[in-house]
Amino acid sequence: MIDWVPVVFVAFKALIFGTCMFFAIKWHYDQGKKKGMDTRTLLRTGGKLAAAFVLALLLVLLFTFGIARMLGMDLSLP
Fold it and tell me: What's the pLDDT tens digit per position in 21-74?
């Protein structure tokens, strides 16, 4: 039987991070339009922010699994 708590928490985390990333990129895009920057520069900046966010998400995930293993939690799939 599957434990649904981690599934729900991971889905919630992905939803929240995805929403935050969307609004962060949108905000930076809108700020660039106000300053008169060209679209290519804005998209490049948005891409860099998205890449940094994905890297940070990966680091948080690895840290979480490292702590879980250190505490002796069984993370293997049945």
Answer: 999 988 888 887 777 667 787 788 889 999 999 999 999 999 998 998 899 888
d(CA 59, CA 26) in angstroms, rounded, equals: 24
pTM value is: 0.48
One-character DSSP codes across 14-52: HHHHHHHHHHHHHHHHHHHHHHT--HHHHHHHHHHHHHH
**Gap between the Cα atoms of 10 and 2, Å rounded:** 14
Measured between alpha carbons, how far is 29 from 48 in angstroms, rounded to an integer? 12
